[in-house]
Amino acid sequence: MEEGTPSITAIGSAMLRAAHLLWDDAPKIFEDTFALRLSGCDSETALREQFDRLDAELARSVGPGFTTLLRRYSTAGVAVRSRYIEDEVDQALGRGVSQYVILGAGLDSFAYRRLDLAKILRVFEVDHPATQAWKRTRLQDAGIELPPNLSLVFGDRISAQGQLHVDQAQFAGLLDAVRNTILEWSLELEKTSHAAKSLDTDAVRDFLSQLRQSLPGLELSPNDKRTVAAHIRVADGELGATMPNQPKLRSALESVRRIVESTAGGAGGTLLAHGVLSLLGHLLG
Fold it and tell me: 54-78 burial string, b = 16+ CB within 10 Å, else e?
């Protein structure tokens, strides 16, 4: 994200949560009744116009069919992730947990929706000051007050007496530690869950074709784009073999996923990355 501006990823995720609530069929996976207001869109019409603009921009790069697929997978991925996290919080409460720290909180609305937990759960939202300030403005415009159990934690300053003090170096270190722990956990989970699972080579072939079309529109550095292209060539080589090396094929796709996960930039690029990651998640499990 750029200095002084809110996270485009946070805005895009809020838009997708709102889209799921408004337009997807029942039953809903996740119901975020604050998402539309937090996204900066003042009405359903405004949200639809914003998506139409982004879809048109993406379609110029990857075509209308893949754009529709990306939107569908992006919306589903954001909804499932949000539901999973909050289900885990509910289970943690049953084990006696009394604090919930949301790293990179963005436009998360948990604390505002779950006022029933205000007396038993302390919530810390950790994010960049620009994103927090933008979120506060959206909340004020909607007439929504901060819950008494919520503390806002910024990377380089604090917002009120009694809140956590985290300087930029500590904040960066904290994020790196959590990121590394999650990565290690994810790799271990993949080893235990997917060791015997073979990839669907036809589905991988289709994905690689779509990824080649999407690559110019992803907000990646030139070096990262070259690296992704190299992994595509490796995967293509395996698919051309009589008996593809499944571990090598999976490794190439996982490498692509790690690179795309780091993407940042405009809303169009962010939504495109969400779609690519959702497709990869479906392939890799």
Answer: bbebbbebbeeebbebbbebbbbbb
pTM metric for this prediction: 0.66
Sequence spans of domains, the chain: 8-164, 197-284
Token pair of 1 as six digits: 């994200």
pLDDT per position as a tens digit, 219-277: 888 899 999 999 999 999 999 988 888 889 999 999 998 888 876 444 444 667 778 88
The order of strands in the sheet holding 122-127 is 99-103, 122-127, 150-154
DSSP 8-state class, residue 158: B
- Residue 9's CB is within 10 A of a number of other CB atoms, namely 22
Quickly name the fold that domain 8-164 has. Rossmann fold (3.40.50)
Buried b (16+ CB within 10 A) or exposed e, 122-159: ebbbbbbbbbbebbeebbeeeeeebbebbbbbbbeeeb
3-state secondary structure of 152: strand
- CB of 102 closer than 8 Å to CB of 121: no
Collect the ranges in the chain with pLDDT lower than 70. Answer: 1-5, 155-197, 263-271
pLDDT tens string 130-151: 889 999 999 999 999 999 999 9
